[in-house]
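Researcher: Please predict.
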Amino acid sequence: MDAIEGSTAPASAPGTTPETITVFTNGSPVALTPGRWYLAVTNADPAVAVTYSIRATGILAAMSFALGNAAAVSNYVYQSSSTNRGVDYYLFRVSSNAYQATFETFSTGDVDLYVRKGLPCPIPTSLTMPAPRQQSGDERIDIRTNTSPSSQPGDWYIAVYQS
């Protein structure tokens, strides 16, 4: 299957590799606009049956909460929510003179923490940084100037998933 975004070429993940199409309000060659959007799934090899799943997610400005430096935020992740499906998103702006960014959860339950520089928002199956501890309890991700990815200045998105 191939993912085609507007008039762009097929995605570079042929075969059974998961594919993502991300459209932003200031995107190019196609910008996100209000209204109905259509998605087509095509099979590159009609001789082979393909099973697939599609998930579409709209990220509203109200879904992500901007975090302040060293300011704690208390929140709950509800699996039954019709808007977030068991995930809360946050935004943290790393300043140009930062040498480290630390993302932490202090949880009474089982949550998973993921971070990613820039959009799209982090999800467990994309190129994001998961917290090394994948079990119940607190989670922490440290990003430093001498690590990969480094603590580059700009917008970092945080996702807290209910496990």
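Model: The CA atoms of residues 124 and 134 lie 11 Å apart.
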